[in-house]
Amino acid sequence: MKSLTQEQIKEHIPHRDPFLWLDEVVEMSETSIHARKLITDDLDVFRGHYPNFPILPGVLQCEAAFQAGAVLIAQILETGTGEVPVVTRLNNVQFRKMVRPGDTLDIEVELTEQLSNAFFLKGKVSVAGKVTVRLEFACSAANPSA
C-alpha cells in the first residue's frame, strides 16, 4: 500500500487545475486505490451550478473516479510508452447524494479485469461514509500523439 501527494499524482496522469479532481491518494495496491478531494466553495463550477445552492455535478464525481482509476492504471502501463488511460465506457451509474462545498470526497476504485490494453473498473464516491455515486467504467490505453 502506498500513498501519493498531488504533485506525485501529476507524475502519473496529465490532468491539471482546474480539472484535477484528486488532492491525494490515501492508499493504493495493485488492484485498488483510495483517493480524496476537498470540495472548496471557490470552485469555478459553483458560479453556475447553482449560484444560490451550490452542488457538485455528478459528472465531476464520476471524473474524480476516472482520474483515480487512471492513477491506478498508470502503475500497470509500461513506463515510457506515453500512453494514457481514456474512458471508453460508463455503466450502471447511480447518483445517491448531493455533494456540497466543504465536503471531502472519498474516491475508491477497483480494477476488476484487464484484457490486453482494456481495463474494467468499478468505483464508489462517498462523503462522510455515505455513498454519493457508484459506477462501473472501462478504460483503454491511448497514445495522445496518435
Walk me through this protein's architecture:
It is a single chain. 15% of the residues lie in helices and 42% in strands. It has a 7-stranded antiparallel beta sheet. Strand 2 (24-28) and strand 3 form a beta hairpin. The mean pLDDT is 94. The protein has helices at residues 6-10, 58-74, and strands at residues 2-4, 24-28, 32-38, 84-95, 104-115, 118-127, 130-142. The protein is globular. With 146 residues, the chain is an alpha+beta fold.
Sequence-ordered SSE layout with sheet pairings:
Layout (H helix, E strand, L loop, with lengths): L1 E3 L1 H5 L13 E5 L3 E7 L19 H17 L9 E12 L8 E12 L2 E10 L2 E13 L4
Antiparallel strand pairs: 1-2, 2-3, 3-5, 4-7, 5-6, 6-7
Query: What profile does the largest beta sheet have?
Result: 7 strands, antiparallel
Strand arrangement across the biggest beta sheet:
1-2-3-5-6-7-4
* Order of helical and strand elements: EHEEHEEEE
DSSP E strands, number = 7
**What is the straight-line distance between the termini?**
34 Å
Query: From the alpha-carbon coordinates, what is the Rg to the nearest angstrom?
Result: 15 Å
Q: Based on Cα principal axes, name the global outline.
A: globular
Low-confidence stretches: none
Secondary-structure class:
alpha+beta
